[in-house]
Design brief:
329 residues; mainly alpha
Length: 329
Amino acid sequence: MKRRLSIAFRLVISVVLLVLLFREHGFISEIVPRLGALLQNWPWVLAGLAASVMGLVFCALRWFVILRGYAPQMPLWVMVRTEITAAFFNISSVGVIGGDAYKIMSISRRLPGQAAQVGVSLMLDHVAGFIAVGLLFFGCFAAIWPRWAALGHDAQLLLGGFSGFMGISLAGMILSWITFKPKVLAWGKRTFPRLLGNAFFEKLSEKLITTHDVILALWRRALVSVVVSIGVYASLFFTFYCALRAVGADAPLLDVMTTMPIVDAMASLPISISGLGVRERTFEALLSSFAGVPEAACVSAAFIGWLFSVFWGLVGGVLFLKGGREIKS
């Protein structure tokens, strides 16, 4: 019941945000002509679709690099198919949990007895992606820093807040890695026996030690996956640049690449369905301030960029119906 209410609430939020955005920017007079420009700018539509699927391929390659440490027999084409099929569950469920659940179940059936390693490798895959987003964002942020004073108040606020969030999160990841160490956990149990010596912490510490061992065994592959992640997010963020060009607008590629990590983070918040409304508003606030892009064009481009991923999600749904459920071990 609570889940249904949560989904219904997010659906209402998405509809309300989109209606307000479309009304604010004139759906008939501004948005529809931008969407109509897709036919005229079809090469950019094709480029956006190609960039979107390349992001999925790179994403599969990133997990493939990590997982090969435990499953050297796993073929890359299986990972790519699984990633595209998981895209269907990402757009048909709330957030990315559905897609991750499908990926774990699909690959675990091919690797009997290694479900824990599959789950930890996927977690490590996400960690590598987060580090890559941080590197990409701070690199782009440094490139636009000379223009800081010329940016609008909203852009400065979002950039400053996201920089702080990324810095604290990366520091927290380092601290978590230290606390995962078996020696640190053992010291904690000796020092605080009443607090950390109970059965719950015993089970938790076992999982943390397993996670630590997997990360320690795969750290070299994790570093390679960080490099691959640059390709993941460069492709996915370039999708929105293509969407911007497809609706007849333009902006420096650097501005779009700086904007997208913030847009992606805001869209991933459990506020609306698939980030609808939140994505468009954040993209509009940042890119109109960065590059003076018309607000209606920003809203239209963010919506079209999302539709590019929806297209491949629907392709993944077809793959699932045609054989994704029949997973051979």
